[in-house]
Amino acid sequence: MSVADRIFASMYDRMTAGPEKAGLRDHRRRLIRKATGRVLEIGGGTGANLPFYGTAVQDVTITEPSEPMAKRLEGRLGGHRFPVELVLAPAEELPFADDSFDTAVSTLVLRTVVDQAQALHELRRVLRHDGRLLFIEHVRAEGDRLARWQDRLNGVNKIVARGCNCNRRTLDGIRSAGFTTTEVQHDELHKAPPFVRPLVVGTAECRAAA
Question: Could you tell me the domains of the chain?
């Protein structure tokens, strides 16, 4: 548990307040209400998605690899109509059996995981054959000019934002991991620096094995 991790966790809600008010919270509300059954949320952060889970949810398991962030999240787990469990674990090593969940949720997490392909493989593994992935992620820009700036600034961004990559082709990664995207909305992460604004919001279904 580094000093930088503790500082980042303590400042996270303040750093994201602008984007949340400028549209991110509305994206969360519309997306998270689609969750059903047993839900796994990776990288739960400070619990921004918790208010939006609807009546179709049976229970929610949240993983979080950062101890300082998990400590902040612990205080927000009570008072929900469904059981909530917090597990300290990285997305690349999910401590759950195959086919355990109906819905997986990733909001602004796949940009940060060390090994995105492995994290997506793990999500595919723990989802049931008819399970769904709900995601909000900022991604590599479609325009060449901004994409080049993302490449230039990614090293600095990873330091400042604790591992956040601003230039990942996350939609391609989701599809390569065995998911079929069923809804994708392209937007911007408003009130954020231009190089982290390109945003995708969507759902993906587990693709049947050939």
Answer: 3-206 (3.40.50.150)
